[in-house]
Amino acid sequence: MLSTQAIIILAAVFSVTAAIGIVTGSNSLITVPLMFQFGIEPRVAVATNMFGLVFMAVGGTIPFLRAGTISFSKVTPLAVITFVGSAIGALIVGIISNASIKIIVSTAMITVAVFILVFGEPADPSKGRFGGMRLPATYLLTFALGIYGGLFSGGYVTILTAVLVGIYGMRYAEAIASTKLINIVSSGVATAVFMWQGLVDYKLGAILGAAMFVGGYTGAAVVTRMNEVWLKRIFLAAVFVLAAKTLYDLVLI
């Protein structure tokens, strides 16, 4: 049983990271390890965090829908692919050990940093990074990321944003908006699987979910008023901070 103080700290951190994570993603790389520190069992931490992410994604999507930033013709096939991948990823959580989950969380930090540094720059919107293969490449990576998103989600939206920008050819504003809608699908199907497996702490999840909804909505409302240049600066700054933290952790290990 968590203390009131612990719950308040978690709610505050979840709300702030949700607001910032609307642009940067990777908030689960902070929230899930923090839950570990409070003694929450790893699989329950991952599942309850995913439960909260549903509310964050919904809150973050609303302002983008109002602003008309999301192209449903582009997002729909990505959402379908994500649904299948995330269901597979969530099923994996129920069969792997707590120690393995902690290793995945640590490894994810390195992978996210490397991927973003390589693919974080926009591709030619008319061709993408792989020319005529940009759609197959985007769909394949979206499926693989869907599995990872259902399994843990830490850095999932960050990498997906990089894929949509650097390979598919979206602008930052469109990619950021699209990943919020896709993340509703990813976190939603994963949460459904976790609920079926009995891994979600509903009382804690409701509190954290409310905090993440407020943070996600607030962050997205701000983002819709920002221009492309500032979105790119914030996104890439977050990438470099993540890379620095990853290198720091590697040195400690």
Task: Describe the structure using short key phrases.
mainly alpha; 253 residues; single chain; 10 helices
Overall description:
This protein has 10 helices and no strands. The chain is mainly α. It has one domain. The longest helix is centred in the first third of the chain and has 26 residues, at about 40-65. The mean pLDDT is about 85.
End-to-end separation: 31 Å
Count of runs of 4 or more consecutive helical residues: 10
Helicity range of the residues? Answer: over 70%
Strand content: under 5%
What would you call the shape? globular
The parts where pLDDT drops under 50 for at least 5 residues are none
H and E order: HHHHHHHHHH
Number of strands: 0
Structural class: mainly alpha
- Structural domain count: 1
Mean pLDDT: 84
Radius of gyration: 17 Å
- Main sheet specs: none
In short:
With 253 residues, the chain is mostly helical.
Topology overview:
Elements: H1 4-24, H2 28-37, H3 42-67, H4 72-93, H5 98-119, H6 134-151, H7 156-168, H8 172-196, H9 202-223, H10 228-252
Helix pairs in contact: 1-2, 1-9, 2-3, 3-8, 3-9, 4-6, 4-8, 5-7, 5-10, 6-7, 6-8, 7-8
